[in-house]
Design a protein that fits this description.
single chain, mainly alpha, Growth Hormone, Chain: A
């Protein structure tokens, strides 16, 4: 079990290494490849759109062919995507770069199930910690992704960051090796063929609503602020190296807490941890509204990562209370589809909001939805008591 969780954590880290590189570079690459700057975050939005497209179908595919085969399908799509992205940058093709980002997003729709696979390889009393430890694999991405982008940006003369994307081929090949050594439990005939309750009945449960709403808003707001940050820092005159450092520490904030989030959930309860996550998100917005110095950006993005971690890991753990084994695939699938839809919308709108209304408006827009999540969490907590 420990070996499986470790390898899943490695896969998570490798997947997020590629994602963090794309987060650090895509808006800047998009702005250089298109004349209309409001389209700068479209490639990033397409990554999340690809994740949205794949999220439900990936769960259904894995139900039929198993976790290992499903993850491998996604990884081969990712290899094609990064090759296409690097070639598109060399050729100056905005459309080609968008297509490559879409392919990487489709893989992320498969890779999002690493955390659910952790539930399946762990005993019931270790599930929250297994999810947390797999998510902690993302700490690798915090140091490798943005720094690799900064180091490799000029590997190919006249095609900034093309070498970075070609370099990600190695990352996905390492993931394929890790997947090959994971022992995934065999699905029972009952769990793979029984239908369970109708999806509409599962969705009506308060625990499902709060789990999905908390993770959805946490991920959506995090993505809105994070994807706008490189553009805001560029407008303020910061160098790319400083932007990469901010993204790096943001990813640290996202995944370092995962070493103890599961233990905190076991000790204090999942709803309390998610409530703390929502409060930390509000602190993020307060810091962003207070100023636009380098210190403001880095403190806010660290807090943003911590708030996301508590809401997303907590939401994932809370979701496991909403379904039986035979309902696992469709419940996980609709959960990830809804989250990916919200993230796609925020990624697509962030560039437009940033260039049209500005950094302050983006942060003000996020306050009401975080307050709604806070109310929903408190409501469920009171209802359970």
């Amino acid at each position: 079990m420990k070996r499986n969780v470790f390898l899943l954590a490695m896969c998570q880290g490798l997947m997020l290494t590629a994602t963090s590189l794309l987060l650090s570079t895509s808006a800047l690459i998009g702005a250089r490849l298109t004349e209309d700057q409001t389209f700068a975050t479209v490639p990033l939005a397409l990554q999340f759109f690809g994740m949205m497209l794949a999220s439900f179908s990936a769960s259904m595919i894995m139900k039929k062919v198993g976790r290992r085969s499903g993850f491998l399908i996604g990884l081969f799509i990712a290899l094609f995507g990064v090759t296409l992205s690097g070639t598109a940058i060399v050729q100056g093709s905005f459309i080609g770069y968008c297509a490559g980002s879409l392919m990487m997003g489709i893989f992320n729709g498969f890779g999002a199930y690493y955390r659910f696979a952790a539930v399946e390889v762990a005993p019931p009393n270790f599930r929250a910690r297994a999810i947390s430890y797999v998510m902690a694999g993302g700490i690798v991405a915090a140091f490798i992704g943005p720094n690799f982008a900064a180091i490799s940006r000029d590997w190919i003369a006249g095609a900034e960051f093309a070498g970075s994307y070609y370099g990600l081929i190695t990352v996905y090949l390492l993931s394929i090796i890790c997947i090959s050594f994971i022992h995934f439990p065999q699905q029972s005939f009952e769990s793979s063929n029984q239908v369970g309750r109708p999806l509409r009945q599962i969705i009506r449960q308060p625990v499902f609503f709060v789990a999905v709403f908390g993770a959805l808003v946490g991920y959506g707001v995090m993505n809105l602020i994070m994807s706008s940050t490189p553009l805001a820092m560029d407008a303020c005159g910061f160098a790319f190296g400083q932007t990469a450092q901010v993204i790096q520490w943001h990813v640290v904030g996202m995944f370092l807490p995962s070493f103890f989030t599961g233990n905190l959930i076991d000790r204090f309860g999942v709803l309390n941890i998610m409530i703390i996550g929502a409060v930390v998100m509000l602190l993020t917005l307060a810091v962003n509204l207070h100023g636009i110095t380098y210190a403001h950006f880095i403190v806010a993005l660290i807090l943003l990562g911590i708030g996301w971690n508590f809401l997303f890991v907590g939401g994932t753990a809370l979701l496991t209370e909403a379904y039986e084994l035979s309902e696992r695939s469709k419940t996980q699938g609709i959960n990830d589809f809804m989250i990916a839809t919200a993230v796609t919308f925020t990624a697509l709108s962030s560039g437009y909001l940033n260039f049209t209304f500005g950094w302050t408006t983006i942060n003000l827009t996020a306050i009401p939805v975080i307050l709604l999540v806070l109310c929903a969490l408190i409501w469920l907590k009171v209802k359970r008591n």
